[in-house]
Amino acid sequence: MTQVFVYGTLKSGQPNYHRMLDAANGKVEFLAQARTVDSYPLVIATQYNIPFLLNVPGKGHHVRGEIYSVDEKMLKFLDWFEGCPHMYQRTLVKLEVEEWVGEGENNPKSGSIVETFVYSTTTYKPEWLQNPTYENYDSYGDHGLEYAYQEDRCPELD
């Protein structure tokens, strides 16, 4: 099993969370709420209002999200879903545990530092660095930039 930090549409209550629950994609277990140790710019970009964690440590916010344990099948699905390695890159990130709920011995306590994979990007348009940054992504937030589901997108606009 591999640990993955999700901060955008795959989080609980967000538009693509159902993909994490789909057993056809693989096995997944929610482990913890956490936030990045370093700050990063979490922006909403493109005409589809996609959240991107720009791999620019030291800018933006300590981004909040969720840690999941995923099997190899789910990891392969997530790589495909995230367009890895072209749209996003799967890299390691240090996280501060806020609340660990996963089962097992020697679980990290609140405030502990862990390292997991995250899908962030170095392949972004330079102007995205000027976009507002967020600490905690919510597709339905006050920003008014609701995520456009993949199946609702017009291919001719890409």
Strand order of the largest sheet: 1-5-2-6-7
Number of helices: 2
Q: Per the principal axes of the C-alpha atoms, what is the gross shape?
A: globular
- Given helix and strand content, the structural type is mainly beta
Radius of gyration: 15 Å
Tell me what portion of residues adopts beta-strand conformation: 25-35%
DSSP strand count: 7
Ranges where pLDDT stays below 50 over 5 or more residues in a row are none
The major beta sheet can be summarized as: 5 strands, mixed, barrel
Please specify the SSE layout and strand pairing.
Elements: E1 2-6, H1 17-21, E2 28-36, E3 42-45, E4 50-53, E5 64-70, H2 72-81, E6 89-100, E7 113-120
Characterise the protein shown here.
With 158 residues, the protein is mainly β. The chain has two helices and seven strands; from the N terminus they run βαββββαββ. It has helices spanning 17-21, 72-81, and strands spanning 2-6, 28-36, 42-45, 50-53, 64-70, 89-100, 113-120. The model has no long low-confidence stretch (mean pLDDT 92).
In short:
The chain has 158 residues and is mainly beta. It has helices at residues 17-21, 72-81; strands at 2-6, 28-36, 42-45, 50-53, 64-70, 89-100, 113-120.
